[in-house]
C-alpha cells in the first residue's frame, strides 16, 4: 500500500474497529486521532466527550487540529481513524486530503444508537459540534435531523464512501477491498 487511508464518519460508525482490523490484515500501521488528541492533552483513556466536559471544546478542537496537522509526518502507509468532529472543521479538510484518501464510513442511525446504548452513552446523547456555527448537534433517538445534518459534510469531503450496517467482518472485508482498489488505481 502506498497511500494513507483517512476514515471519517459519525461516532460508532466503525472507523476504529474496521480501521484496526483492516490495518492488521494489510500489514500496515493504524492511528486514531481521538486517542492521539487525548494523549496530547494528557487525558489518555478518556473519551473525547469527557475531555470536552473537563477541558472545554476549544482545547479539544485545538489539540485535534495539531494532531491532524501532524499526519503529514507519517512515514509508513497508515489507516487513520479521525474523530467525528475533525471533518466538520473547515481548517482540517485540506489537511485530511493531504493525509490520504478519505473514506466515509456510513452506518444507519438506528445501528449507531444501539451501539451507543450498549456502550452506556449518556442519556442526552452524543454531542457533535458544527465548527462552522459553533452549534452543538446532539445525536439521540429524537435527533435524526442532527444525524442527517452531518452526513452531507462527510460525503462532500470524501473520496469514497462505504456502508457498514452488518457484521464487523463484512465491514472489514469491504474496507480492505476498497483500500486495495484505491492503491491499485492512483489518482
State the shape: globular
Spatial strand order of the main sheet: 2-3-1-4-7
Low-confidence stretches: 120-125, 129-136
Biggest sheet architecture = 5 strands, parallel
Average pLDDT score: 80
Class by alpha and beta content: alpha/beta
Order of helices and strands: EHEHHHEHEHEEHEH
**What CATH architecture do you see?**
3-Layer(aba) Sandwich
Radius of gyration: 16 Å
Strand content: 15-25%
For the record, what CATH class applies?
Alpha Beta
Features of this protein?
five-stranded parallel β-sheet, Rossmann fold, two-stranded antiparallel ribbon, 7 strands, single chain, 187 residues, alpha/beta, globular, 48% helix
Report what the structure shows.
The chain has 187 residues and is of the alpha/beta class. The protein has one domain: 3-Layer(aba) Sandwich (Rossmann fold). Helices cover 48% and strands 17% of the residues. The strands form two sheets. Strands 2-3-1-4-7 form a five-stranded parallel beta sheet, with helices on both faces. Strands 5-6 form a two-stranded antiparallel ribbon. Helix 2 (33-40) packs across helix 4 and helix 3 (48-55) packs across helix 4 (57-70). Mean pLDDT is 80; it is low at 120-125 and 129-136.
Quick structural overview:
Helix 1 packs across helix 8 (168-184), helix 2 (33-40) packs across helix 4 and helix 3 crosses helix 4 (57-70). A hairpin with a 4-residue loop joins strand 5 and strand 6 (135-139).
